[in-house]
Amino acid sequence: MPSPRPAPTSLLLGEGEPRVVDFRELPDQLREGDLLVMNDAATFPGSVHFEHRHLRLEARLFEKTPRGFKAVLFGPGDFHTRTEARTPPPLLDPGEHLRLAGLDAEVIDVSPTSPRLVELAFTAHDDAQWAALYEHGHVIQYAHRAERLPLWSVQNVYGARPWAAEQPSAGHALTFELLRRLHVATLTHATGLSATGDPALDAALPFPERYEIPTATLDAVNAATRVIAVGTSVVRALEAWAMTGERAGVASEPIEPDTPLHVVDGLLTGIHSPGESHYRLLGAFLSPERLRAVCELANRKHLRTHENGDLALLWCDREVTSADAPAETRNVRS
């Protein structure tokens, strides 16, 4: 069966004079002592359609909770319609009951930010929830891909626990052949939704996301010459650990252009566009002028954006320092 996700052909290098090379040259762009940290969260099928008030609605489940999931609700339609053009769902109230993926669910919370953001509690236990989701759910996807994506096509080769509502896609091109040539470590970060179509919710992205970092990964980070995050979720997890000292916790603060970095020196990332929450994070690595130059080169070279497109390797053009991080997490590299 042919893959619905074409392998990237290009790697944009943001160091020095920006240039584009074949992605397979990634190991040649690194030095001895460089460590790539990857998010090993597997992608679960978080899009579920259900009938309610004589309408066919969609719930995009993105965060596991003790009793169920947090979800963003959509009106009639599916991913073929651009997210911002989707019809809003009817307003639901706490205590309202739904039939979702063959299971009974109750709305137990409605966000004050937007009534489309809800928390659902299921009567079934966790095992039954996961089984129903994998039986009835689909991949969360967007209108730029016309075909429905099979679940296997949005998994990284090193994926493990199903924590990701959307694929941590910066790692999609890392084949076993490439990984054998790289020094790598993993953590798990629950990547959520990249867009909702609701202006209030989109302005709040990325939502707080849980993470867990193995002790072995922290040891490898502290022994590394340079740390390269594979994807923005890894940046959030490592920088949350640096500031809180929590190996397992919730990354609640966004990474903005003025956010100082304490751990991460470089970033392997997709090609993002202005206005996206991921794009704002890139400003923590590059000055506005350098980021503009990188984006202009990506446009001239017609590099593919969105998930599973071409990639960029960016290096922080400011000093990475742990001076104001908690003492127990200060990186020995500084």
Automatic annotation (TrEMBL):
<dbReference type="GO" id="GO:0008616">
    <property type="term" value="P:tRNA queuosine(34) biosynthetic process"/>
</dbReference>
<dbReference type="GO" id="GO:0051075">
    <property type="term" value="F:S-adenosylmethionine:tRNA ribosyltransferase-isomerase activity"/>
</dbReference>
<dbReference type="InterPro" id="IPR003699">
    <property type="entry name" value="QueA"/>
</dbReference>
<dbReference type="InterPro" id="IPR036100">
    <property type="entry name" value="QueA_sf"/>
</dbReference>
<dbReference type="Pfam" id="PF02547">
    <property type="entry name" value="Queuosine_synth"/>
</dbReference>
<keyword id="KW-0963">Cytoplasm</keyword>
<protein>
    <submittedName>
        <fullName>S-adenosylmethionine tRNA ribosyltransferase</fullName>
    </submittedName>
</protein>
<keyword id="KW-0671">Queuosine biosynthesis</keyword>
<dbReference type="InterPro" id="IPR042118">
    <property type="entry name" value="QueA_dom1"/>
</dbReference>
<dbReference type="InterPro" id="IPR042119">
    <property type="entry name" value="QueA_dom2"/>
</dbReference>
<keyword id="KW-0808">Transferase</keyword>
<keyword id="KW-0949">S-adenosyl-L-methionine</keyword>
